[in-house]
Amino acid sequence: MSRLPVVAIVGRPNVGKSTFVNRVLGRRAAVVEEKPGVTRDRREFRAEWSGRDFLIVDTGGWQVGGDQLTEGIRSQAEAALRGADMIVFIADAATVFTEDDRAMARLVQSSGLPHILVANKADGPAAEADLDHLWSLGLGEPKPISALQGRNMGDLLDEIIAALPPKPEDALDEPDRPTLAIIGRPNVGKSTLLNKLLGSERVLVSPIPGTTRDPIDVVVDLDGLSVTMYDTAGIRRRTRVDEETEFYSVIRAKQALEEADVVLFMIDATEGVTHQEQRLAEEIRSAGAGVVVILNKWDIAQDEEKWWVEDGVGDRLAFIAWAPVLRLSALTGARIKRIGPAVQAVLEARRTRIRTPELNRFIRTLLEAHPPPVRKGRRPKILYAVQAGTEPPTIILFVRGGEIGSDYLRFLEGRLRSEYEFLGSPIRLVARTRTKRSPRD
Fold it and tell me: pLDDT higher for 3 or 131?
């Protein structure tokens, strides 16, 4: 299988790289805000133009010097260059270039890769005529565009496609892979875990909570199982999301959750299960994703903390008690080999299908021993059951004579789990009430 060509988008902070990426994709996929440093990791998106598929990599703003976080952002941008087939260098047409621009231009030149210099924020003919200063960067003719308005984007994309390596004749479509999302509160070690699984500093790690803004998606091999994995921004309570950037980050983290086949639900073993973890678990269950609970930082948790956090998982997360629990250290890599087999088991459980005759025999046996309780003076009767789908397993109960309460549905779910292998997978039980047909006139 041939890989897709990679186009790296680079430049100093706040020149419009993420706006450019969003314009190419035709949707607001990368976080955009009028503040430097919003994009911190490099993130890949699949794009298409004129029938040619390619990966576009949005990088953090490249700066000379700075603090530890700035150095991490710079290293991520440089790593994107090493994996690229061509480079789009974005400069600000409305301002004089800086030392950061000049230093980044030298890196682009030394890479030896095909490149295009883009003068963004050229919102009209007057701005297009005033680009002489950008020639001195030594990257060729600056191409004036406005990513915000879409001005000249079509012509630029034509040039990008022309600069890509020729498309192999035997190129095949990307295979379907299971999708995993790493979900948890800020700073529980999500990015550290992803980097350990990858074996490289693919995602920026910092002790500063909220370092990850966009969901970071990469292909990971878990002991022979190829998956697409999302490292998401930590989801906080709504009352604590007070920045527009973080608001959109949380929205996209929840979108990743909706698309996930399996969620790696990370909990800090030194802090235990909080109310926020309970709310996250509810969202994960509602999304229908499989779940593997990960107690991270197990190596540094004290004995009394370990007992306390395990008790909290059993008590405060009782509604996902069917999820496997792994105890590991993302930082050291201790026990992370257990993730692959656990994910594989959950994926198989999500695909479990019970044949209709077998399911109805099982339901009838339960009804004879434990019929549904009387509600509002009527005892409901389950006429028939059928599994309507998988991923997650969804069972429809056709009911007459009253309503099936949530307590009885939980009872049925528990008995199903004791009989069949649904490890780590939610089960959706849907009761449909049938009414007597009216006689024909």
Answer: 131
pLDDT for 217 equals: 67
* The pair of three-digit structure tokens given for residue 199, joined into one six-digit string: 């074996």
Fold that domain 179-349 belongs to in CATH: Rossmann fold (3.40.50)
What's the angle, vertex CA 129, arms to CA 123 and CA 131, rounded to 5? 90
CA gyration radius for the chain? 26
Task: Judge contact between 326 and 342, C-beta under 8 A.
Answer: yes
Q: How would residue 322 be classed by pLDDT, with cut points 50, 70 and 90?
A: very high
Neighbouring C-beta atoms of residue 140, cutoff 10 Å: 12
Question: Domain segments of the chain: what residues?
Answer: 6-163, 179-349, 356-433
- Assess whether the region 6-163 and the region 179-349 belong to the same CATH fold: yes
pLDDT at 2 over 80: no
Determine the pLDDT at residue 200.
Answer: 65
- The predicted model gives 236-265 an average pLDDT of 60
**Rounded mean pLDDT, 217-236:** 75
**Domain formed by 6-163, architecture:** 3-Layer(aba) Sandwich (3.40)
Q: Does domain 356-433 have CATH number 3.30.300.20?
A: yes
Task: From 214, 210, 225, 213, select the one nearest 180 (Cα to Cα).
Answer: 225
Mean pLDDT of 119-135: 84
Question: How many Å apart are CA 171 and CA 167, to the nearest integer?
Answer: 7
pLDDT at 34: 42
Name the residue among 408, 416, 364 with its Cα closest to residue 385. 364
Per DSSP, helices labelled H in 288-384 are 303-316, 339-350, 356-369
**CA pair distance 79, 75, nearest whole angstrom:** 6
- How buried is 98 (Cβ within 10 angstroms: 0-12 exposed, 13-18 middle, 19+ buried)? middle
Rounded Cα gap, residues 232 and 41, in angstroms:
11
85 pLDDT exceeds 50?
A: yes
Tens-place pLDDT, residues 362-394: 999 999 999 999 888 889 999 999 999 999 999
CA distance 113 to 225: 33
Measured torsion, CA atoms of residues 325, 330, 333, 339, in degrees rounded to the nearest 10: 40
What is the Cα–Cα distance from 1 to 333, expressed in whole angstroms? Answer: 31
> Which among 424, 71, 31 has a CA at the least distance from the CA of 246?
31
Upper half-sphere CA count for residue 297 (Cβ side, 13 Å) = 17
